[in-house]
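Re: the 286-residue chain
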Amino acid sequence: MQEQLLVNPAGIREHKFKTSKNVIGALVSEPEAIHAGTIIFIPGWSGSREDFVAAMPILSSLGWHCISIDQHGQPSSYGSNKEEDFTLENFAQDVIDIANSLSEPVHLVGHSFGGLVAQYGASKSPQSFASITLMCSGTGPLPKENWGGLPALVEAVEKGRSLAFIWFVKTFVLTILRKQSFSKPVRKWRKQRWLNTNPLSLKVMSELLMNVENVTPKLKQTLENYKIPILVLRGENDDAWPRSEQQAMAEMLEANFVEIIGAAHSPARELPDKTAIELDTFLKSI
């Protein structure tokens, strides 16, 4: 399993997109020769644009223009201090605006919470997207048994606790449970990313992961009038949404279903080569 890369690979540059509401930070890699199309990656809860940097150069070598964004509130898109600005609709509108600013319909890859955003965005503006990949995501809220520390995080932010304090508690619990799987340099990097995230974004995303209305039926209804190829992609050992739910989601959307053997909840970080190959295979089959 590959750890999070601490330095972006050669060929990846920073970029800013101005949407109707926000300024969104992104990392971009360009194809080396032929242009196969454009992919936008959406990270999940507490994630960032760096979650895809290991797979992006591989995909660009295969012809893909890759854009990995920070959602509103994530480090390079820190954004507003008003909680009402953080909604599923606004997260999705940022992605729609970025897609519409480009010269062609884009292939959208949403990871975890980003998959909910992708489904909502495709339901709202299907003409903006050439395909949708839902990576380790689900139809709606996480099962209650998988909420973990989400309720405590929401309460802590509401009480004005600092992200440094919340990180301390979070890592203390993980240490007791022996679930610390990263090296010391990566833990340091992840801590800094956490501290650079807007707490309002973490709070709202946490609430949505627990209580969001199912988004897949809305996407299914949209697909009846506007066909978009869909891929449901999961790691073999993904522990967020149940495999059975992801399979049912694929069936509802008449989507391809692919499982990456050996990966868990973050295939693009854990097994970037296999993830890139599966994405390239799907996208070039459309």
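The mean pLDDT is 95.
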